[in-house]
Amino acid sequence: YPSEFLVQKITEENQIPVHLHVSVSLQYVAGLKGSALVEFFHGNIAEVENEELRHLMWSSVLFYKTPNVEVMACVLLSTKAIYFLLDDSFVTLFLSCCFVLKLNDLQSVNVGLFDQYFRITGHSADHIVTCLTRDSYNTHTFIQQLMAVLSLLARTPSPEPVDKDFYSEFGSKNTGKMENYELIHSSRVKFIYPNEEEIGDLAFLVAEKMDGLTNLPSLNILLYVLAFQVNHVEGSAPNTSSLQPKTLILTSSDLFLFDEDYISYPLPEFAKEPPKRDKYQLADGRRIRDLDRVLMGYQTYPQALTFVFDDVQNQDLMQNLTLDHFGE
């Protein structure tokens, strides 16, 4: 019997992002409110009688075995498991409309740069899922709820840690390189956050793509955001367009679009070989000095931006981007 506050909170969270299309079955789930939503969870999804629904979130998800297929899902967090109600278009690949990851099988959670996404890792390749929230608030809220639920798990306590100083705790004595910041929860699940070196590596990569024309120390990444590139479909209705996931990176001199691998890095412990593609692949890059104008749509969140470049060398002068959020 969840509290009235919890039921109201879950009802408010049960909203599909307006720019993403989902199947009729998921639209039905999004239409459920209040106690009807809780009853639906217990009657159709929950695996044991005494588990409690704690959090609901709509997000695009990626699976480790199908890294190029992004699918819409309703993510339900209970006191026993994380459930992913998948869009019908994906069911044929996985032969299941609901993917379940039990909390007892959870080993680590990797949070992406600027909290734009997070990866949940279980004990095998079948149990690795990335949630592309494209929103730091949604990521933060889910992680907080997940930590709270994990605190309820009865696991054998880890042996008492030996006191270590900062450098031996987070650094490698062999290389002197700082590792990513790691928080080990009382449930023994690792929460891994990127450190400043990851931004430095990204800045170095961006500088390489600029053919070394930029002085690396002066190169600052001003914005990193997961966005969509809008491709209008020819021969279809005027408002029909496909959204291609892209990572947008803005520096003081250039605007870049990358195809990023959000699921394969860092390598899981059981991986026997590196992924087939690099983490970042350059899709497009333009100089800010060639930017002629920026057109802003009048619709509400998410905001659509059109960047028009005065670049004679490139035939394609129009770049359409839909950002999931448009900050100050």
TrEMBL record:
<protein>
    <submittedName>
        <fullName>NISCH protein</fullName>
    </submittedName>
</protein>
<dbReference type="Pfam" id="PF23142">
    <property type="entry name" value="PH_PLEKHM2"/>
</dbReference>
<dbReference type="GO" id="GO:0019894">
    <property type="term" value="F:kinesin binding"/>
</dbReference>
<dbReference type="GO" id="GO:0032880">
    <property type="term" value="P:regulation of protein localization"/>
</dbReference>
<dbReference type="Pfam" id="PF25625">
    <property type="entry name" value="PH_NISCH_C"/>
</dbReference>
<feature type="domain" description="Nischarin C-terminal PH">
    <location>
        <begin position="221"/>
        <end position="327"/>
    </location>
</feature>
<keyword id="KW-0963">Cytoplasm</keyword>
<dbReference type="GO" id="GO:0032418">
    <property type="term" value="P:lysosome localization"/>
</dbReference>
<dbReference type="InterPro" id="IPR057288">
    <property type="entry name" value="PH_PLEKHM2"/>
</dbReference>
<dbReference type="InterPro" id="IPR053015">
    <property type="entry name" value="PH_domain-containing_M2"/>
</dbReference>
<dbReference type="GO" id="GO:0007030">
    <property type="term" value="P:Golgi organization"/>
</dbReference>
<dbReference type="GO" id="GO:0010008">
    <property type="term" value="C:endosome membrane"/>
</dbReference>
<feature type="domain" description="PLEKHM2 PH">
    <location>
        <begin position="71"/>
        <end position="158"/>
    </location>
</feature>
<dbReference type="InterPro" id="IPR057714">
    <property type="entry name" value="PH_NISCH_C"/>
</dbReference>
